[in-house]
Amino acid sequence: MLQPTDPLVQLTSAGIERSGRWLVRGVDLSVRSGEIVTLIGPNGSGKSTTAKMALGVLKPSEGSAVRREGLRVGYVPQKISVDWTLPLTVARFMSLTGKVAPADAVRAMEATGIMHHQHAEVRNLSGGEFQRAMLARAIARKPDLMVLDEPVQGVDFSGEISLYDLIKRIRDEIGCGVLLISHDLHVVMAATDKVICLNGHVCCQGTPTAVAESAAYKQLFGPRASATLAVYEHDHDHTHLADGRVRHADGSITEHCHPDDGHHHDHAGHDHSGHDHSGHDRSHSHGHASGNTGGGVSNA
Ligand SMILES: Nc1ncnc2c1ncn2[C@@H]1O[C@H](COP(=O)(O)OP(=O)(O)OP(=O)(O)O)[C@@H](O)[C@H]1O
């Protein structure tokens, strides 16, 4: 068990294996109070699986996942299954899966700006309103750690920015740690302290210090977007095939990739031409911050 001065959650060389295939492996990750850690990576790269290890929903097949004693977690899953044919108001939704004090539910709905929808049917909410309701439900538990799996899905760009702003504000207000998942390698992250890029394992991680300053970016997304968001620039040196094997930049294919297996190379001065993008089963993309790169990037 972790002590109060330790991280809220810590994964060490953690991996999940199913039917002889590693869904994700060799993950080292920690989230501290007041810290926002963002997981990025292509579809199927193991982000949700990693989050579930952090939550304790999945037990690592190897390595460890340790949470602070008595940790309260607020979870916004990627998918939820609710029978939408049943009437369910937003207020009732707040305490659907656990007891929540009415005052805490009100505070959470106020913080997320959905108080005026408290009597509305959840099934009638717009995409952005629903995501806010999901966030409110997580906050109402007064969590030490919030795990948000693609919290901006289905939300339009300006709604996305305000949701990221909201997450940042909640972090500031309640001082919780946040493990945030984004499915898009191009995604821009607001107030993220640490970015972890997964692709079956930790490809690289670091602090996104870059803010997109280019005129084109500002023109496209507006100055507010530039002020709030940073782009994390990174690259990959290998591809994960659909059957779980790994194709390396030199064309060789191995059963799996692990930080210890010696296939990783230093990203500093990396030659992009060595990157084989042909026939990728999981398409890799590169974030390009104009002139800015994430600071303090390290490679697994
Ligand atoms: N219970 C399971 N049994 C077998 N394979 C699984 C299981 N759960 C997930 N997977 C597989 O593990 C891989 C990682 O899945 P995961 O949901 O963690 O990816 P992700 O990065 O969150 O993807 P996305 O961006 O599409 O949400 C995928 O290939 C998925 O099909």
Automatic annotation (TrEMBL):
Gene3D superfamilies given in the database record: P-loop containing nucleotide triphosphate hydrolases
InterPro entries the UniProt entry points to: AAA+_ATPase, ABC_transporter-like_ATP-bd, ABC_transporter-like_CS, Metal_Ion_Import_ABC, P-loop_NTPase
Keyword field contains ATP-binding: yes
Domain spans labelled ABC transporter: 9-224
MF annotations from Gene Ontology: ATP binding; ATP hydrolysis activity
GO BP terms: response to zinc ion; zinc ion transport
Pfam families: ABC_tran
Composition skew (Basic and acidic residues), residue ranges: 251-284
Keywords annotated in UniProt: ATP-binding, Cell membrane, Ion transport, Membrane, Nucleotide-binding, Translocase, Transport, Zinc, Zinc transport
Annotated region described as Disordered, given as residue ranges: 251-300
PROSITE patterns reported in the protein's UniProt record: ABC_TRANSPORTER_1, ABC_TRANSPORTER_2
Coiled coil (UniProt feature): none
Transmembrane segments: none
Family per similarity comment: Belongs to the ABC transporter superfamily.
Family annotation (PANTHER family): METAL TRANSPORT SYSTEM ATP-BINDING PROTEIN TM_0124-RELATED, ZINC IMPORT ATP-BINDING PROTEIN ZNUC
Name of the featured protein: Zinc transport system ATP-binding protein
Source organism of this protein record: Hoeflea marina
Species classification: Bacteria, Pseudomonadati, Pseudomonadota, Alphaproteobacteria, Hyphomicrobiales
